[in-house]
Amino acid sequence: MLPRRQQQEMPRRWTIWIVVALVQGTLVEPVAADPATAEQPNFVVILVDDLGWTDLGCYGSQYYETPHIDRLAQDGVRFTDGYAACAVCSPSRAALLTGNYPARIGITDWIRYRYRGQPPPGFDDPSDYESVGKPIETPRNRFYLEHRHVTLAEVLGEAGYQTCHIGKWHLGPDDYYPERQGFDINIAGCDYGMPPTYFFPWSDKNHERMPNLLGGKEGDFLTDRLAAEAVKFIDAHREQRFFLYFAPYAVHTPIQTKPALAAKYAAKPKAGQKNAAYAGMIQSVDEAVGAIRAQLAQAGLAENTVLIFTSDNGGYLPVTSNAPLRGGKGMMYEGGLRVPFIVYWPRVTEPGSTQDEPVLGIDVFPTLLDIAGVERDVDDRVDGVSLVPILADEEALDRAAIYWHFPHYRGTDADPYGVVRAGDYKLMRLYEDGSTQLYNLREDPSETTDLAEQEPEKAKDLDLMLSKWLISSEAKLVRPDPNYQPPAADESERAADE
């Protein structure tokens, strides 16, 4: 285990005070109990990989079985309009841990790791662009979470929390692993975007072993093992305040499950979603959530632990179905961006409640600091907002809009785009030609009716909001490719033009 990053390695941009909220007024008084009079709670953040908005029973699935996660929603608040900060994984993970939009961090696409075509030295140049034979050049993606960005683990660690990362990291090579980003303990976190296999030894001859994931036997399933590590951590730290960041590799590819679960779901009637192996993977994640909550209860910590459950992007097509939402992972439509988002704050959140306020992964950072009574330096910029006011059912969030910036081509799934949601309206801009689409999500959550021509003033207003945000967030923008040559028209096209 490596020590927490030392002061001389990076000038600290945070000043931490542990404050009593009744004196300083930093917490909103909750509905049922005043957290300011209680000890600082533990935190468990569960970030599932590629889990779609409708992949849970509590979000409408009739095929996947998720009783433990459904119970979490019954105990806490379920957000109907929860979003990932990006439609792919690495940017969402960096955003959750720093509270900032991917555009500000400079990680706007998934990070290629060493066994999946990591570029040669010098590729990661934030000032550089790449030409892909399209009308625009796209900015290169940063390949690690820079140390200048302060993470949630660092802030909570300085406030006295024991910090533990378990599972997928995917935010850079060795020098940027969790141990270098504020976590006291790292289990299985490395530069992998996906595991070579979900079965022991979770590796093969072409891959290094996942850090600190030792031992096991044939047939052991990775999600189960990570859950066991989480249980061990909770048990060992029951007398200390802790922050557990549990990020299973599931349900990312490879789509693999235990044979018994594959057989179970293969025999089950299909209901829109139909992949038996994927269903088994979801059940294993659900069982992991159940194991974590059971251990919290056994250790007497259930009533003093805040849990947040969400996903890093929308469901991966065609493995799952995100219906009624349009699209999936990587795409600018709701199926790529909207995700499950559940918060359980004992004695504060209203059991079984729902919230339709749009919330985002970047909100986790300020929310946990607010609950813990940890103040951050006013000079440090965080894009997310604390959810405490709506968790305590006091007031709406003070935020006009939320944004996305994806300046990359993604195969046939997506061209470079920007998105803004303000109220019920969502505008999407394709960077290649500047065209826009406008939808009213309250009336049309499936995004079937483009309103850009019917409501031109609304489209113009939101497009201007997006432009201003791109500037204020210091987003790296696309630019025209001076060497682009349009494909020559074929004979039939030339004849038609003549």
Question: What does this 3D model show about the protein?
Answer:
The protein has helices at residues 21-24, 67-75, 89-98, 102-105, 152-158, 222-236, 259-266, 276-298, 334-337, 364-372, 388-391, 456-472, 491-497; strands at residues 17-18, 42-48, 77-79, 82-83, 129-130, 136-139, 162-167, 185-187, 242-247, 305-311, 341-344, 353-355, 359-360, 374-375, 402-406, 417-422, 425-430, 436-440, 479-480. It is α/β, with parallel strands linked by helices. The chain has two domains: 24-401, 3-Layer(aba) Sandwich (Alkaline Phosphatase, subunit A), CATH 3.40.720; 403-480, Arylsulfatase, C-terminal domain (2-Layer Sandwich), CATH 3.30.1120. The strands form five sheets. An eight-stranded mixed beta sheet has the order 8-7-9-2-10-11-3-12, sandwiched between helices. α6 runs parallel beside α8 (276-298) and α7 packs across α8.
Q: Gyration radius, to the nearest Å? A: 22 Å
Low-confidence stretches: 1-37
Distance between the termini: 72 Å
Number of separate domains: 2
Instruction: Name the quaternary structure.
Output: single chain
Tell me the major beta sheet: 8 strands, mixed
Residues in helix, %: 10-25%
Instruction: Give the class from helix and strand content and strand pairing.
Output: alpha/beta
Read across the widest sheet, the strand sequence of neighbours is 8-7-9-2-10-11-3-12
Structure summary, number of beta strands: 19
Number of helices in the DSSP assignment: 13
CATH superfamily of the largest domain: Alkaline Phosphatase, subunit A
Into which percentage range does the β-strand content fall?
15-25%
CATH architecture of the largest domain: 3-Layer(aba) Sandwich
Q: State the CATH class of the largest domain.
A: Alpha Beta
